[in-house]
Design goal:
The protein is an alpha/beta fold. It has 7 helices and 7 strands, in the order E-E-E-H-H-E-H-E-H-H-H-E-E-H. Strand 1 and strand 2 form a beta hairpin. This is Thioredoxin domain-containing protein.
Amino acid sequence: MKRNLTVGDSAPPIQNIDIWDEEVKVPASDKWTYLSFHRFAACPFCNLRINQLRHQYEEFKKRNIRIIAVWPSDKDLLLHNADGAKMPFPMLSNANKQIYKDYGVTESSLMGAARLFLHPFLILKAIKNKVEKITVDADPNLMPASFLIDQEGRIKMAYYGKHFGDHPEIETIFSFLK
């Protein structure tokens, strides 16, 4: 039975190498961690979020929060979709979805597509900014999720998306810093 993580739970530890061969560990004893789980490398909604995180990176950094993006896609496809540009934060390839399972990010639902129709401006924005060729290399119905983890490894925010482009607002994430 799937169990969602909640505020106050211990964050499952992560020790991995990102797509640029940098070591990544969660928790980090000196920083907060924002984990952002995505659907697949070419997902237009996920790429909107990554661009938003990239543009807000300095605001996260000012608040001593490191961003880690987790993808069920393989490293080569992630690097291809990054188009040679290194993000200012780690991106983890987790093709076997073990990190997804550890964090309870396993919901796959066609309802995610149906709920998305309640957000037409998000759909238009995603279409406008989508990559040229969309290759679906993971479960296309996987829902996104986000977690804010403190330096002791406690979850301070757990957010499971309700549709394919559902992520918490940046200010909402910052409001959990205490």
